[in-house]
Amino acid sequence: MSTMEGQIDNYCLKEEQKVTKRKISLSSCGVCGSEEAKYRCPACFTHTCGLLCVKKHKDDSGCSGVRNKTAFVTLSHFDEMALLSDYRFLEDTGRFADGATRDDLIQAPRTTLK
């Protein structure tokens, strides 16, 4: 039975370490400061705890909440997600340009008066 108790104690110690590690890694809400932050603004990286704090953050700071797709990423922080983001940005740009060439209102007349 002593080995079983040792395993249970070891398991409880590991669970406590996980809980304390999680509490240390998360910060408090940047708007109200009273609760643990669950969300982060993609534009300015402000930590918030809920929808009310997100709305208050946007009203107070004038933040749009939209991530800057053209922001510089250093090579040391460039990973697969940054590559995928860049690829999607280029696809959207190409799709927008293609839509502009197909739109009759945007196109200039191709005839000359000479």
TrEMBL record:
Biological source species: Ilyodon furcidens
Family matches, as SUPFAM superfamilies: HIT/MYND zinc finger-like
Record key words, sorted: Metal-binding, Zinc, Zinc-finger
Q: Where is the signal peptide?
A: none
Which Gene3D superfamilies does this one have?
A: 3.30.60.190
This chain's protein is named HIT-type domain-containing protein
The superkingdom listed in its UniProt entry is Eukaryota
Q: Which Pfam families match?
A: zf-HIT (PF04438)
Q: InterPro entries, alphabetically?
A: BCD1 (IPR051639), Znf_HIT (IPR007529)
The record ties this protein, via PANTHER family, to: BOX C_D SNORNA PROTEIN 1, BOX C_D SNORNA PROTEIN 1-RELATED
Q: Start and end of every HIT-type domain?
A: 29-63
